[in-house]
Design a protein that fits this description.
Layout (H helix, E strand, L loop, with lengths): L16 H12 L6 H8 L4 H15 L3 H8 L2 H11 L2 H13 L6 H8 L4 H15 L3 H8 L2 H11 L12 H14 L8 H10 L2 H15 L3 H8 L2 H15 L1 H13 L6 H11 L4 H12 L3 H8 L2 H12 L2
Helix pairs in contact: 1-2, 1-3, 2-20, 5-17, 5-20, 6-7, 6-8, 7-15, 9-10, 10-12, 11-12, 11-13, 13-15, 14-15, 15-16, 16-17, 16-18, 19-20
Length: 320
Amino acid sequence: MEYKAVPTVVARKPFDAVADSQELRGAMRGLGTDEQQIIDILSTRSNAQRQSISAAYAAEFERDLIDDLKDELGGKFEDVIVALMRPPVEYLCQQLHEAMAGMGTEESTLVEILCTKTNEEMREIVVAYEDKYERPLAEQMCSETSGFFRRLLTLIVTGVRDDLTTPVDAVQAKDQAAQLYAAGEAKLGTDEEVFNRIMAHASFPQLRLVFEEYKELSGQTIEQAIKHEMSDELHEAMMAIVECVQSPAAFFANRLYKAMDGAGTDDATLIRIIVCRSEIDLETIKQEFERIYNRTLHSAIESETSGDYKRALTALLRGA
């Protein structure tokens, strides 16, 4: 079944970058700030259009739009607006960098960003990361992670995954399923190297076929096998790959649910997914969220957030 990715935010037509830049300047001038106007403009333009607005703003006022927004806004609302203003790849690099900065590492952020990308997307991130931080992503990641989890992420980051242009191979899928079975269920202990190699090398369409063959061969789903064979971060990473192969929307819906479940809210994850997926498949994620959890994503976010922060996120959910 072909995955249908429906965004909530699309390019605005007609679009006038100069007029938008003037309106934003007006919203930030004088006493007080018109937050609603900032939300109305930035949540209904594509990222490419926001970059044009930023350039027009610099040309018109000789000022940096992101700096001005930061001066005028605060808290989580500022985080959403600044995230919207960054080019998507640059924003993801920043999120990866923050996940590895300071004490401890946010492994689940690394998993969410790295395990869900195609090889083409991964290449862009790797180039942009080294450009921005003057250190290869793989090198920094190696110093922050360990064991088979580190090896899996290193394989993904070094771009060994087959491109989407590589034709799927049914015969090879049978063989790969047999290798996974032999490396896990069919033996005492687990040969993680085999799992890492196949999960990091095969394209997502090829993996879809491998998982079907696996079920045919073992009578168990690949998820059941991973649950029995893996633990901790490696388990989380493997499951992320499996979920993204089968339905990226379900994976992100689950991440959003976990970010809002229990005491407190994981605002960083909430903002990152809503902003990053708004132009890809946020509409599809909304549908999956409602299907899985029997409530709308809109109502969940409304009950977890407040003020301008809530208005900005729900504006992105509605889209243009």
